[in-house]
Structures are given as C-alpha cells and as structure tokens.
Amino acid sequence: MGPPAFIAPLDGQTGYPTGLPITVTSDRIDLPDDYLTPDLIRVSDLDTGAEIVGNLTFSDDGVQFVPNQDWRTNRRYIWTIDPPIPVPHGPELDFPDHLIGTAIFDTSKRLKLLNAGVDAEGNTCMVFSRTITSDDSGTLRVTVNDIEVEDAIYSILEPASVGNQYTLQPDDEGVSVVCFQTALPIDSGASLRLWWGNEGPWRVDLIDATPDELVRILRRGNY
Amino acid sequence: MKTFLLLIGLTQSAAAWSQSTDESDSPWGTSSEDTETPETPPAEPAEEVPEAPEPENTGDTQPSATPAESTPVAAPDKPAAKEKKDPATLGKAHAPGGVRIPSYTTGTGVSMGLKAVLGTGKLFSGTNPETGERETHPTQPVDAYAVFMAARYTTERFGVVVGIPVARHSVPGTNFDNSRAHAGGLGNLTLDGYYKIQSGKVHSMLAVETHFNVGNRAYTWLNDGDELWPGFGVDVAWQGYMGDKLVKIFRVGLGMHAARSSQPFPGFFPRFQASFALDYAFTPRIGLITEGSFAYWDTSPLDLSVLGRFDLFEGIRGRAGLTLPIATWAGLVPAEQKAGLREVTWVMDLSYAF
Prior knowledge:
The complex is a heterodimer. By secondary structure, chain A is mainly beta. Chain A is built from one helix and 16 strands. The model of chain A has no long low-confidence stretch (mean pLDDT 89). Chain B has a twelve-stranded antiparallel β-barrel. In chain B, strands 2-3 form a two-stranded antiparallel sheet. In chain B, a hairpin with a 5-residue loop joins strand 12 (286-296) and strand 13 (302-313). The longest helix of chain B has 18 residues, at 2-19. The interface between A and B is medium-sized, with 28 and 41 residues.
C-alpha cells in the first residue's frame, strides 16, 4: 500500500486557510516535473465561476497547486484532479486512481455535515467540515429515519485521533468527528438528519464505516 | 556472449575472405595503411627510365598502389586508372555505417538527418473526471520526430564527432478528449571520440561515446532511448568493417547511463549493444544497407533497418530508409505497448565531407 496518499483540503472541508496550497500527496505520482501537464489540477471559484490561475509544483511527495494569489475569504472553490492521458512515445504519467476526481473546499467558517456511518461496535459517527470549537454553541438534534435520538451520549474525536496517518499542513486544522451510541442499534442505510443550533438540517445516509474510514473517503486516502 | 562470439567469427571469416579479393575494386577506397603494405612486391627502381614529366592536376589525390609497374609517362593517362578514381574518392569521404552503427571514419564534415516515427501508438486508458469511468483510447497516431545535426573532425587515426538532435513531439492535450498539443525540445548532446585500429583487412576503431542533456528537455524517444529523453551516459564501443562490394560492419558496445526517471525510463541502467550490418554496393555511388541491432536496456531493444544510399556528388552522401522496431511489434518493450505492427521509423540523412 505504501506511504499515505491523500488530498488536502479534504473534500467538503471548510475554514481552509487562505494561504495554503492544494496538496496531493502520493509517492506514486510519476510525472516529469517539467513535462507539460495542463489541467492536472483545475480550480474554479464556485461563486464567480472564474478559473483560478496558479502553478503546479512537483516533489517526491506529490504535487501542489499554488494559486497566484491567496484564496479569497468566505469563498467556495471546486477543484478537479485530471491526469492527462499519455501520448505515444511519451511518459506513462502514472497517477493513483483513488486520488482522481472533483472536490470542494471553503474558506468560510461555515459548518457542514459531510459524512456519517455506523461501525461494528454500534457507534454512529459524523464527520464535520471543520474542527468543532467552543464557539460552536447550540443544541444538537439528531433524527434517524425521522425518529428523534434522545438517549445519545456524544463525544468529539480529536482530529489527531482520526485519520492521523494523513499528515496535515501547518495551519490546517482538519475536521472533527462526533460519535454517539444509542440504546437501540442503528443500521447502515438509515437516514440521518442533524441540526446544530441554527445550522442544518443536513441529511446523509449512514454507511458501514469506522471514523477512520469516513475520513479516508473524504481524503481519497489509501488507508 | 553468443552474439559477440558470432560477430568475432564473422569478422575473422570475412577478413580471410576479403584478403582474397582485389582491394583496388573497393568502393570504400584504399587507406594509407593499405598502401604502406602492398601485397604485390615493389617494382624494380626505375633508375634507368627517363624522369617522367609532371602530370596535370586531375584532382585525383589517391596515390597509386603500384607506381613503378608501368611506364611513368603513360600511367596517368591510362583509362583504367581513371575509372578507379570515383570509388576511391567517394570511399575516403564516407565510411560505411548503419543506423545504430555510426560512420565514424567518414571524413571531416557535417551531416544532418531526420528520424520520424510513423504509425499509431499504444493502447491508452484514462479516467474520465466527469463520469469517473475508466475509458480506453484504442490507438493514437505517433507524433515524434527529430532533426539530427552533427559535425566531425577526423585525422588519420583519431576523430571527434559532436551532435545535437532537435525534437518535436506531441504532449497531452488540455481536455479529456485528448486534443493534443506539441512541444519542442533539445535531445541529448553527443560527444564521441574514436581511435582507428588497422588489423589486417579489418578497419576497426575503439570509440568513447558520451551524451548529456543541455536543457529544454524533450520527453520522447524514437528508437534509440539515448537520443532524446533527458539523460546522460558514457559508452565504450568497438566497431569496424571489412569487405569490398559487400561490406560487413559490426559493433559492440557497453555503457552506463542515467535518465530522468519516469516510466518507461529507469533512473540508472547499464546498456549493452550489438549490431551487424551489410552494405552492398550496386555501383560505387549507389548501395543498400541492412542492419540488425540489439540493445538492452533500450526503448526498442531489437531493430532491423534498411537504407538506400546515394552519393550525389563527391563528398555528399544521402541515405534514406526505414527502421523496423521488431521488439516493439512484439510488445517486448519497457513502455506500455501491446504487440502489433503499428509503427516504423523513417530515417534519412545527408552527409558532407569536406
């Protein structure tokens, strides 16, 4: 499986620092650093539709997209990893398939529910789009299949304890995972709705996954 | 090792064969070493013959092998001697060679050539970022060619050749439909030196060949993996030729190479090369060259080449033909390439010897 391979920011992440580049970490990216690879990473401002101009920098650890100007505050960006198809008598351009695709990130502090699942021990865990702080006040309300969850005990997993194989860049706080257990078991496939104070509702279908697996999906990671 | 022994055997048998032929018919001319050890005994000194008048300058600088066998006055005007002028002159200007076997002993001069891969390339697959589906592109036209320029300086025993290729090739397009763009770049600068060895009738030489990238890289290749893809390395080669109307040419080489590591090129690799070629002279000016070459590590380990050559004027030789990448057709190449008859390489060059 090799060293961890993943994307940063995580798909759907909010509160991403305006001065950080987009990073695709993998030691299996095989592109000559001075080979023309247009559109390997394309970035657009979702609010204006404008394409973001920047530079790709390659290293042994992967590739980064550095915008010519810092990300704007309170903006949402969409970005796509689209490795070029090799040409005859040219480099093979190996690129891990699991990293390919489109993702969104946001520089605002908006809170969103990104993913949720149930593990084998009966824990129901939810991945939020940024770290939860003491500023996030309000009542947490959850329904499963439209039935109110009233007997749950919630716990917040620290970012360092979830998906910690994916090393974050300095200033990137990552995301928070909140888990709870109920007296009655919750099955995967159930519909979960969540409100947090004035935020929400968000709805997701629960999947079979541990907290690490939930983060891995959003990171497009290999672990 | 078998290839090497076979080449040695061919060399020895061909040398024995060539000794039984009339050297004066050689389309490659008579070297100074040949004239120093004439097979026929020297004629008696022409002490009693009156001194011959100075012949007119006919432009034929080739010394006569038997200057005293006939009457000195009549010798310059013999029709037979004039017929031998063109082969000798042309041969001294251009030594035999192939595609993988350089014509090292060709006289001081310059050359320019073109190699272009014709045909369609490998099977491709990629992920459509919009659908997330893997898609296959059956074939694409190969679009890679290079112009080679070289200059030579040769003396009786030594020679130096410096060359640089300029490549143009396709690069991935800007959309998933793979509308392709093109890029140009410099291949690897070559700097070769050789020392000529005369052993019997075998004209052989030891060569030290270097190549290194000088920037503005070209990430492509034609057949020889050292020409264009950024890298550097050094080879030691022994090559030579023997024969007259049918000239046998051989080459073996061994070297250590480094290349910009990206599939299909490894970062560091040794390279063994063995080639054998035949040059058949239909006339002193026109000939046919066939060459077989094996090299490992290489992007095209086994090639066959067929070239026609034509000496347009004294000192100017043109060649054109095809290189057939046998190993590529068989799918026995480091690149992701399915077996199939898809591509050939067009080869042409023009050489001028001063």
